[in-house]
């Protein structure tokens, strides 16, 4: 039975797509500016089972762009803050919360045990990101990957496209290079912006560990990336809208 809180989505999509979404299982890895809003939009669309993964804690510098980041939540695990929100949105959500950074064999373990219908890559460190994408491809798990939202201010340049069509994005370039080394040149859906980044808005600092640098961000851009990633998942799983990709 479709619950009342989903009645507006039901009106838009109809019963069958909603009922289909309620049976689906989605994995979201990374709960920062992109992943937090993405996970929430997937839950609000009615997906019945989710696993969320992030080991990071809320820092007050996150408050300009991240859903779990509030002054009252400083120092708390982002995954636990998001879990509370998602269960408050949908009390019936079958939710698994992993408070860890995943990479290599742990990535394999999670993917092999999960039975996932879709995976969302919101990882912002290169090696785990590429490993996760490759591991999903190897298992034929549909995946959408978010590329660089930092340093961007123009939402009109954000698109859903194939990894092979990306440009003017450092993260995309590094990911493409690593995937090429693994024999993967296309076939990965990504959220991407070709907007040029002002390099003066990037600083190298040890505070960015495990990354090498910090890049300036604005409130709405990571959310736009996250909502677009969620739209890919929801549309593909419900088959209610024909993808234009």
Mean pLDDT across every amino acid position: 94
What is the end-to-end distance? Answer: 32 Å
Strand % is: 15-25%
Strand arrangement, major sheet: 3-2-1-4-5-7-6
The largest sheet is: 7 strands, mixed
Domain count, please report it: 1
* CATH-defined topology: Rossmann fold
Named at the architecture level, the CATH assignment is 3-Layer(aba) Sandwich
What would you note in describing this structure?
Strand 4 (118-121), helix 6 (126-138) and strand 5 form a beta-alpha-beta unit. The chain has a single domain, classed as NAD(P)-binding Rossmann-like Domain (Rossmann fold). The model is unreliable at 240-245 (pLDDT under 50). The radius of gyration is 17 Å and the shape is globular. Helix 3 packs parallel to helix 8 and helix 5 runs parallel beside helix 6 (126-138). With 245 residues, it is α/β, with parallel strands linked by helices. The strands form two sheets. A seven-stranded mixed beta sheet has the order 3-2-1-4-5-7-6, with helices on both faces. Strands 8-9 form a two-stranded antiparallel ribbon. The chain has helices at residues 7-13, 15-21, 33-44, 78-89, 104-114, 126-138, 170-181, 220-238; strands at 25-29, 49-53, 94-98, 118-121, 143-146, 158-162, 189-193, 202-204, 213-215.
What would the keywords be for this entry?
single chain; 245 residues; alpha/beta; Rossmann fold; 7-stranded mixed β-sheet; two-stranded antiparallel ribbon; 8 helices; 9 strands; 16% strand; disordered C terminus; ThiF_NAD_FAD-bd
Short description:
The chain is α/β, with parallel strands linked by helices and 245 residues long. The chain contains eight helices and nine strands. It has a single domain (15-236), classed as Rossmann fold (3-Layer(aba) Sandwich), CATH 3.40.50.720.
């Amino acid at each position: 039975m479709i619950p009342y809180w989903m009645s507006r989505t039901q009106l838009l999509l109809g019963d069958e797509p909603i009922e289909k979404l309620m049976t689906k299982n989605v994995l979201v890895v990374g709960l920062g500016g992109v992943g937090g809003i993405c996970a929430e939009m997937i839950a609000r669309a009615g997906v019945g089972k989710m696993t969320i993964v992030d080991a990071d804690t809320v820092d007050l510098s996150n408050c300009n762009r991240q859903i779990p980041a509030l002054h009252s939540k400083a120092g708390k695990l982002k995954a636990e803050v998001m879990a509370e929100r998602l269960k408050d949105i949908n009390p019936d959500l079958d939710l698994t919360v992993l408070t860890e950074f995943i990479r290599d064999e742990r990535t394999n373990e999670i993917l092999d045990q999960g039975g996932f219908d879709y995976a969302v890559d919101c990882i912002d460190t290169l090696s785990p990101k590429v490993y996760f994408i490759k591991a999903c491809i190897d298992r034929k798990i549909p995946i959408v990957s978010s590329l660089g939202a930092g340093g961007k201010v123009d939402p009109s340049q954000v698109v859903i496209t194939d990894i092979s069509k990306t440009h003017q994005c450092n993260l995309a370039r590094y990911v493409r290079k690593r995937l090429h080394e693994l024999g993967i040149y296309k076939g990965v859906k990504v959220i991407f912006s070709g907007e040029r980044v002002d390099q003066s808005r990037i600083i190298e600092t040890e505070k960015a560990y495990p990354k090498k640098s910090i890049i300036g961000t604005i409130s709405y851009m990571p959310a736009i990336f996250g909502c677009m990633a969620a739209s890919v998942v929801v549309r593909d799983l419900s088959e209610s809208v024909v993808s234009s990709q």
